Amino acid sequence: MHTIDIRQDQIRLLDQRKLPLVEEYVACQSYEETARAITDMVVRGAPAIGVTAAAGIALGVQQMPEPDSEADFDAQFDTICETMAQTRPTAVNLFWAINRMRECLQRCRQAPLAQRRETLWQEVYHLHEEDIRLNRQIGAHGLDLVPPQSTVLTHCNAGALATAGYGTALGVIRAAHFAGRQVQVLADETRPFLQGARLTTWELQRDEIPVTLITDNMAGYFMQQGRVDLVIVGADRIAANGDVANKIGTYSVAILAKEHGIPFYVAAPLSTIDRALASGAEIPIEQRHGDEVRTVGSQRIAAADIEVENPAFDVTPAKYIRGIITEVGVASPPDEGTIAALFSASND
Ligand SMILES: CSC[C@@H](O)[C@@H](O)C(=O)COP(=O)(O)O
């Protein structure tokens, strides 16, 4: 299963709106179609959005009309990057990946157009492979936090589908499973897009990792019953102080976990940490269309004209988080010091 299948004439994306009922790829034939696929959540999840945007940029440069000057090339390149940047505001991996493509272009600036195109594609393949490698490292660092025979609750989908492969939160669960820890997963359904019900259960079942689906409002019940040992979620953006933006509902789960003395961990690559933001209050929260709340699947469940709020993410303050599991180690407790130490470790 490939979440993102990169070809030089199109980007093929496993259509996450249709899973688990239909396994179908959407072929994006241009950078504009790639951008629309991100906005419409054909592909979603912070690292997957980043890799897809990078691929969209390479596709845009591949197809751009022959520029008549360097200024014309720059203008076209900026338009492509800006279109990608407008897709979704919260996952910082999007902007991180666009920057990586800009930096890559700077390195091959002097080369002829054909060579620039090739170098940008090579960067995309590199980002794709790198993401899978980092996820495996996150899994290795998180493994020992998962006790044998434990039940792990997760929210949303931070798995292979949300990344280039393997996953972050589900990467840790995968690593524990394949190390023989006999882990069980409780998957929150994750209204309104139902990433937990549709995607997390689907990908864990494929790996034969035991998973039970619960509705979002059952998390407290299972914690009170002593049936949750650990919570692991992903992240869309982490501020310098360790506050974490993740799928709406994560904050409620974190508070429930704190009340019940259950360790709450976040798994994410360093590219999800936005050190330019002092705290989570500065993280932009995407507001999505109200119809996602008025409907379940294609079924409308509320009046078409009912007022709706649909924030896609919330911010969990660092004080509720036991640790942030990254590819270079665990920031625990997460704060400016432990996070800065991870970045120093990554530069060694
Ligand atoms: C490894 S993915 C981490 C996060 O991106 C994930 O938990 C999440 O909130 C995804 O939100 P989505 O709106 O589905 O893109």
From TrEMBL:
**The EC number(s) this enzyme carries:** 5.3.1.23
Q: Which GO terms describe its biological process?
A: L-methionine salvage from methylthioadenosine
Which residues are involved in binding substrate? Answer: 44-46, 88, 195, 246-247
Gene3D superfamilies reported in the protein's UniProt record: translation initiation factor eif-2b, domain 1 (1.20.120.420), Translation initiation factor eif-2b, domain 2 (3.40.50.10470)
| Gene Ontology molecular function terms on file | S-methyl-5-thioribose-1-phosphate isomerase activity
Q: Which pathway is this protein engaged in?
A: Amino-acid biosynthesis; L-methionine biosynthesis via salvage pathway; L-methionine from S-methyl-5-thio-alpha-D-ribose 1-phosphate: step 1/6
Catalytic activity line of the entry: 5-(methylsulfanyl)-alpha-D-ribose 1-phosphate = 5-(methylsulfanyl)-D-ribulose 1-phosphate
Catalytic residues identified in the record: 236
Q: Which Pfam families match?
A: IF-2B
InterPro entries, from UniProt?
A: IF-2B-related, IF-M1Pi, IF_2B-like_C, Initiation_fac_2B_a/b/d, M1Pi_N, NagB/RpiA_transferase-like
Q: Which domain of life is it from?
A: Bacteria
- Supply the alphabetized keyword list: Amino-acid biosynthesis, Isomerase, Methionine biosynthesis
Q: Where is this site: Transition state stabilizer?
A: 156
Q: Does the keyword Iron-sulfur apply?
A: no
Q: What job does the chain carry out? A: Catalyzes the interconversion of methylthioribose-1-phosphate (MTR-1-P) into methylthioribulose-1-phosphate (MTRu-1-P).
Concerning NCBIfam families, the annotation shows: eIF-2B_rel (TIGR00524), PRK05720.1 (NF004326), salvage_mtnA (TIGR00512)
The family assignment reads: Belongs to the EIF-2B alpha/beta/delta subunits family. MtnA subfamily.
The protein's name in its UniProt record: Methylthioribose-1-phosphate isomerase
